[in-house]
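Usage example:
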Amino acid sequence: SAVISQKPSRDICQRGTSLTIQCQVDSQVTMMFWYRQQPGQSLTLIATANQGSEATYESGFVIDKFPISRPNLTFSTLTVSNMSPEDSSIYLCSVRTAPNEQFFGPGTRLTVL
Amino acid sequence: EDQVTQSPEALRLQEGESSSLNCSYTVSGLRGLFWYRQDPGKGPEFLFTLYSAGEEKEKERLKATLTKKESFLHITAPKPEDSATYLCAVRMHASGGSYIPTFGRGTSLIVHP
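Running the assembly step on the lines above writes:
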C-alpha cells in the first residue's frame, strides 16, 4: 500500500488566481495521477505525472490550465491556473503500486468564488 | 455513453439487511475491475481488484464478484459504519500502452441503525 498526503486539504480562492496542490507519497512510485471529482460525478483523470518528463494530459485538460511538476518519485504538484467557479471541485492525487493497485490521497477541496 | 454504470445511485438499508450493488461495463479488453469505498471528505479507499470472470474477493462483510459484463458488491448484514459511497472502476488498454481506469459515478449507501 501507499500513504499519500495532500496540501492544502481545502481552500477558498478568488476568480483569476492560481492554486498549487502538493502531493507527497511515503514510498517511491513510478506512476502518479491527478484526478478531479466534481459533485455527483465520477472521478475524471486530469493527467499522469511522469518523473523527469512532461505530464501526459487527458482529453479536455491542457498544460497551461493545469501545469504539473514531478521532481522526484515521491512528490508532485498540480496547479490550477486562472481559476473560475467551474474549477470548484475536489482534486485527488493517486499512485499506482505493485501489484497494480491504485491508491488515492485525501483530496483537496477547492472552492472558487 | 458511459462505459461504467453503477446502480442504484443511492441505496438505503436497515442494519442487517443484506443487498448488492451493481457495476456494469461495456469496455472490451478488460484489464481489471476495482472497487473503492469513499467516505465524505476523503479520498477513495481501495477495496478489491478482480481480473477474470468468476473471480470473487471478500473482506469482512463485503464480497465482490465478476462476470464478463458486470460486477456485484454484496454487503452481508451491513452496519451503519458501512455507510459510504462505493465506486467501481474498470481498467482497459489505453493509448501509449498505459492502463487508465474509468470510474463509475458511485452508489451512495446509507445503513440505518
